[in-house]
Amino acid sequence: MEGELEQRRTRNVIKIVLFGPESTGKTTLAKMLAEHYETEWVPEYMREYLQKKWNKEQKICEPHDLLPIAKGQILLENKKAATASELLFCDTNLLELVVYSRAYYNEFVDPSLLKPALKAKYDLYFLTYIDVPWVEDDLRDRPLQRDLMFARFENTLIQNDLPYRVLQGSLQQRFDAAVQIIDQLKNKEIGL
């Protein structure tokens, strides 16, 4: 399974992950940034997988779902990275599955997920803050634990010494801040 979860390195593509708790605007921002920079974005495979499961069985994520979700996510990422032009925006990654696994399954993470999640390389993480309204849907279930979940995401980045910037404020403020940071990154004006 580990080989199936391996991130392929690609030519000079800057990989940026939208990372953070549920309902913090990651998907919308990933789409906007990809459109702005005329490149690819990687959708969140977990959402598609779990929505199908919910529609069919009215069940939420279970531990045995994580590896198939991880496989689907990395397949999408590798496919989009092959056609991206200069930048690739990932609406989540395997490390996000690790955070959710720890939060939902008593700190357990399948080792076959953890190793490739920590091995995958990204140039920058945009950690999305919880200052936007929480939107209910079939899959979201922790509106009262947003502070705790944000702390889990940020602590994961800190503990693994990963480069990140927090995006907060309105969607437009987040987009503007992200564009400024990305332009600096492209011009190698900032060290992360």
Automatic annotation (TrEMBL):
This is ATP-binding protein. The keyword Nucleotide-binding applies. It holds the Pfam family AAA_28. Keywords: ATP-binding, Nucleotide-binding. It comes from the Bacteria. It comes from Salinimicrobium oceani. The lineage of its organism: Bacteria, Pseudomonadati, Bacteroidota, Flavobacteriia, Flavobacteriales. Residues 15-174 form the NadR/Ttd14 AAA domain. One of its GO terms (molecular function) is ATP binding. Transmembrane segments: none annotated.
